[in-house]
Structures are given as structure tokens and as C-alpha cells.
Design brief:
The chain is an alpha/beta fold. It is built from seven helices and ten strands.
């Protein structure tokens, strides 16, 4: 039987977070969902914990005694809040946790290393914070949600992030399967320290995800395995480099 974990879901009221939180609760884990309102509608079996993701001082109770955290949060496409939410929210959770080790599953996006327009830069920087933090982690870069056909459920874990079309041509994945992978990664030693793009191809879903996790290459420092070397650290803004140091100092 899988060990029962206390898991905090950041973004647990969203379309993917709700599925992941419900799946974790059904698996026997203790589930908390971070919300800004104590009366928020959370999945069955979950407990709402209040806090503001953009304010680290409000997150102490939410992270108290957790074993793991799943990030499925995100600001709206091209929102000016992407830096504060997608990136700053990760840093704030890490700071609230402090030096205690927890398991992390972070969802970003396929094509996150494509710097065209700078939209994904903050998501990619949030990945780097997690890698620098010293926590055991898995980073999942899902493709396009729910564009798969009824027979398209065979999971493929890719690395190198080479699909930059910016459309379902990059790949497709069901929200339910994404939720499954995120939750499964928390209890998989083979998934630790790895980043991958998640797509589904024609065929049935695999029952055992361990061979997929085990076949992945581990990450390279603060970068995903085989990622494009198009975000040199010495060219990053000073405050971003300082944030990375803050994360590293928590290790």
C-alpha cells in the first residue's frame, strides 16, 4: 500500500488541480487545498486552507507539517500576473516551507523553453527555483488539454522540450491523465529530479507508470535534461538570480 501523505494543492480549485486533489484523496492521502476564501468549494475529501499565494506571510498554516505540494496554479494566458503568481507563488511556498524537505510536483507547460515573446520565461524560472531548492521534485510539462481522441491515451514522457508549434500539434493530453501523473510522481523514487513533457498517443493507457519515470534522464543542475541553452544564468535579471540564491539557501 502506498504511504499516506499530507499534500497541499496549490491551484487545487482549478480544472486540473481539482482532479488531482480528488485522485489523491481517493488514494488515501490527506489533502489540503490552498484558497483565498475559507468557504471555497474544494473536492470531496479535501480540506480548504486559506492563504494568499502572493504573500508568503499568509502561507505558514497551509504548509505546516505537509509531506508534499502539488502546483497546478497559473495566471491567465498573457496576464500581467504571471510573474507574481506562476513564479512568485512558487518562491513564496518554498520560503514558507523553509528548510524542511517535502516532495514537489510542479506543472508548467510544453514549450516552456521557447523564449518567443517571453510568455513562458516566468514558468521556466519557477522550474529553476524548484530545482535549486534541494527538495525532491518532479516537473511535468503537459501538452494541450483534452484534445486527444477517445482512443488516444498511451502516455509518452518526452525530454528536451523541442515542440514549439504553440498548438495541439505539440501534443495532447487529457486533464485526468495529467492529474494521475502528478499524483503518481509524489510516491515514485524513479520520478525524483526529473522534468518531462507529457503527451498521449493512440493506444490504451498504461497501468504502471514506473517504467516511464525510470526511463527519463535526470535534470542538469537548474535546467531540465537536454533543455535548450537559451536562458544563460549570467544574463538573467539580478533579482531573479537573487531569488535563485534564496531557494538554494533553503536546501
Amino acid at each position: 500500500m502506498t504511504e499516506s501523505l499530507t499534500i497541499l494543492f496549490v491551484g487545487g480549485t482549478g480544472s486540473i488541480g481539482r482532479l488531482a486533489a480528488a485522485r489523491a484523496a481517493a488514494a488515501g492521502h490527506h489533502v489540503r487545498v490552498l484558497t483565498r476564501r475559507s468557504n471555497a468549494n474544494v473536492p470531496a475529501g479535501a480540506v480548504a486552507v486559506t492563504g494568499d499565494l502572493t504573500d508568503a506571510s499568509t502561507l505558514t498554516a497551509a504548509v505546516a507539517d505537509i509531506d508534499a505540494v502539488v502546483f497546478t496554479h497559473g495566471a491567465a494566458y498573457q496576464s500581467p500576473l504571471v510573474r507574481d503568481v506562476d513564479y512568485g507563488g512558487v518562491l513564496n511556498i518554498l520560503m514558507a516551507i523553509g528548510k524542511r524537505r517535502v516532495r514537489i510536483a510542479l506543472m508548467t507547460a510544453i514549450g516552456v523553453t521557447n523564449r518567443a515573446g517571453g510568455y513562458h520565461d516566468w514558468k521556466r524560472r519557477s522550474e529553476r527555483l524548484v530545482r535549486a531548492s534541494g527538495h525532491p521534485y518532479t516537473i511535468v510539462r503537459p501538452s494541450w488539454f483534452d484534445y486527444n481522441s477517445p482512443s488516444q491515451h498511451e502516455l509518452h514522457f518526452l525530454q528536451g522540450d523541442t515542440r514549439w508549434a504553440g498548438s495541439p500539434a505539440d501534443g495532447v493530453i487529457s486533464r485526468a491523465q495529467l492529474a494521475e501523473v502528478l499524483v503518481a510522481s509524489l510516491t515514485s523514487p524513479a520520478a525524483t529530479g526529473k522534468t518531462f513533457e507529457l503527451v498521449a498517443e493512440e493506444g490504451p493507457a498504461q497501468i504502471d507508470l514506473e517504467p516511464l519515470f525510470a526511463a527519463l534522464s535526470p535534470d542538469d543542475g537548474i535546467n531540465g535534461a537536454s533543455d535548450a541553452a537559451n536562458m544563460p544564468l549570467d544574463e538573467e535579471p539580478r533579482d531573479v538570480r537573487e531569488d535563485l540564491q534564496i531557494a538554494a539557501d533553503l536546501a
